[in-house]
Amino acid sequence: MAPTWRPDLDDHTALNDAPLKQTPLHALHLSLGARMVPFAGYDMPVQYPAGVLKEHLHTRDAAGLFDVSHMGQVELRAASGTLEDAALALESLVPVDVLGIAEGRQRYALFTDETGGILDDLMIARLPGRFLIVVNAACKHADFAHLKAHLGDRFELTLLKDRALLALQGPRAEGVLAELWADVAAMRFMDVAEALIHDVPCIISRSGYTGEDGFEISIPADKAEDIARRLLDHPDVLPIGLGARDSLRLEAGLCLYGNDIDTTTCPIEAALEWAIQKSRRTGGARSGGFPGAGAILDAQTNGTAIRRVGLKPDGKAPVRGGATLYSDATGTTEVGKVTSGSFGPSVGHPVAMGYVDTPLATPGTTVFAELRGKYLPMTVSALPFITPTYKR
């Protein structure tokens, strides 16, 4: 029997009695027999009848279709001035090179606060005449307010409430999508393009959050179910829920906002310095000028006390987020914390990530997690646990 996924995403589940929202594909999920759970204020599919294990492995072997319509899609236009002006304005909120994003490309970015903490992680795509910003579901209203407060008097900002978002992931994703739009074969990792799929205007990016080649497709909400059904009609495609989405991204060493990164986390602690391009670093042409720049650039130069790492538990028992890490099996000296943990179906053993004291961050180091009153050895491991298959 496929294992039942236990949500380890408490920061993203509904925390009050407000009615759960539904994505445009809610009826489709029910018709496919999905088990639904609260997530980021939405009623979302955690798994389908195939089960989490099969969904995970099918995505690695063929193609999986995910509903990520709960995420926020924000359009930024230059009401006056140029799109370059808008890029420079957006750079005042993120420590990445927005000006350098070419049309038809996108970049991973971070909203930071004045202390150098992470407000959210996001994607910024440059399209003709505008930027499309995709943010996390639990943060989207706060992110939009953040953008409005800092940019709204100079630029047009729109939270796109009438669009859905699908992710088609896996080694056969290109072949599946090419049957609906042949030009997809020319795209490379982090390309973004506008396309007509059965006369429906879509925005397609070659990206995702599984470590696999794949695509994210922004679609008008009223056409989303039709496009989703066409994709699911392909024999290589299975619907995939939140359970497999979590284990796939964890094997790929990708952070989940609210678990692995948050406002208490510096991007350098989180091993995300690769996302800060040279022009925004110390000595760069446009270094600084973003919230928390002093703390972040100091950390880049001088290092941090803790560091995000991969963790491989001994044995078959997963170690979940929240477990405390110790230097030895006596539990006397605390040295870190697990932030995400699950079984890794593709690698055949439990996987986790978390933060340890920087001197212990070298792969091969042993630390100990407290698990039901015992201390389980965990080996510090390089991330990711699998080899990504992005089409470069």
From TrEMBL:
Gene Ontology BP annotations: glycine catabolic process
Entries under Pfam families matching the protein: GCV_T, GCV_T_C
This protein's UniProt keywords: Aminotransferase, Transferase
Transmembrane portions of the chain: none
Family to which this protein belongs: Belongs to the GcvT family.
InterPro entries: GcvT, GcvT/YgfZ/DmdA, GcvT/YgfZ_C, GcvT_C, GCVT_N, TrmE/GcvT-like
EC number: 2.1.2.10
Keyword Ubl conjugation included in the entry's annotation: no
Ranges of residues in domain Aminomethyltransferase C-terminal: 307-385
The protein's name: aminomethyltransferase
Residue stretches making up the GCVT N-terminal domain: 25-279
Catalytic activity, reaction form: N(6)-[(R)-S(8)-aminomethyldihydrolipoyl]-L-lysyl-[protein] + (6S)-5,6,7,8-tetrahydrofolate = N(6)-[(R)-dihydrolipoyl]-L-lysyl-[protein] + (6R)-5,10-methylene-5,6,7,8-tetrahydrofolate + NH4(+)
Residues given in the record as substrate binding sites: E216
Domain of life (superkingdom): Bacteria
GO molecular function: aminomethyltransferase activity; transaminase activity
GO CC terms: glycine cleavage complex
